TrEMBL record:
This is Thaumatin-like protein. Residues 1-18 form the signal peptide. Disulfide bonds join 27-251, 79-90, 95-101, 148-238, 153-221, 161-177, 181-195, 196-206. The keyword RNA-binding does not apply. Keywords: Disulfide bond, Signal. InterPro entries: Osmotin/thaumatin-like_sf, Thaumatin. Pfam families: Thaumatin.
Length: 252
């Protein structure tokens, strides 16, 4: 085997085989998309700022390295960065930093519907999903160009959000719906059947049936994570050799 030639070929492939991601705002309102990469897990980051403004009906495409790991994309609503930019600059999904989310600490403030990605993970598979584990704010659908699975939460969960979970903007409109975990309903985040923590930190000790309001989320959005261990119905995998391009659409 010509090792050196193979390595050269692989290097060339790695450089040219970045994926194209498109973030499309099909909502009737402005969304401020955000990207966060857990740099404790992987160093590869998308070729796109960590936050931007997306007017209604617009889309932006950018390159994402083939080995993007532990990445998430979400939308922020009702943002105003003109004073004191930071996590409270948006009604939902705000982050440390302001318009640009801090690369190290700029995860979104719940509730926020997430699109999560690890490309080229174990078994040469892309892993991706739509997650309501941190609550929900905007409907999201993740499509691809190679016929792999399409996770989504297309229902506006704000409309009938259970009162104990509802998050309102300053005008009193419900703009987000916390999960039972992010709402801290049981008051013990370190040992919580809603958060799957402490003595509830395995799939067998944290069944969905033990999570308050699980069925509200799962019935509306069966292909989304409605709690931490929803992998069987919510984790989507795609052969990484297909080098899928992905589109994240808000309000599909
Ligand atoms: C991702 O791939 C690039 C290009 O091959 C490489 O330089 C980088 O080290 C990789 N990053 C990780 C986290 O594996
Ligand atoms: C992924 O696709 C490649 C190329 O078509 C194929 O060789 C490989 O067996 C596939 N892997 C899986 C897990 O299906």
């Amino acid at each position: 085997m010509k090792v050196s030639a193979s390595l050269t070929a692989l290097t060339i492939i790695a450089v040219v085989s970045a994926r194209t991601f498109t973030v499309k705002n099909s909502c009737s309102y402005t969304v401020w998309p955000a990207i966060f990469t857990d740099l404790n897990v992987g160093s590869a980051t998308p070729d796109q700022p960590t936050g931007w403004q997306a007017n209604a009906g617009t889309a932006v495409s950018f390159n994402v390295p083939d080995n993007w790991t532990a990445g998430r994309i979400w939308g922020r609503t009702e943002c105003d960065f003109s004073s004191n930019p930071g996590p409270t600059s948006c009604a939902t999904g705000g982050c440390n930093g302001g318009l640009l989310c801090d690369p190290h600490t700029g995860t979104g403030v719940p509730p926020a519907t997430l699109a999560e990605f690890t490309l080229s993970g174990g078994g040469n598979l892309d892993n991706y999903d739509v997650s309501l584990v941190d609550g929900s704010n905007i409907p999201i659908k993740v499509t691809n160009n190679v016929g792999c699975g399409v996770p989504s939460c297309t229902v506006d969960l704000n409309l009938e959000c259970p009162t104990p979970l509802a998050v309102k903007d300053t005008s009193g409109k419900v703009v987000g719906c916390d999960s039972a975990c992010t709402a801290n309903l049981d008051g013990n985040p370190a040992n919580s059947p809603n958060c799957c923590t402490g003595s509830h930190d395995t799939p067998s000790t944290c069944p969905g049936s033990g999570v308050a309001f699980y069925s509200y989320f799962k019935t509306a959005c069966p292909t989304s994570y409605a709690y931490a261990y929803d992998d069987p119905s919510a984790l989507v995998q795609c052969n990484s050799s297909l080098a899928a391009d992905y589109t994240i659409e808000f309000c599909p």
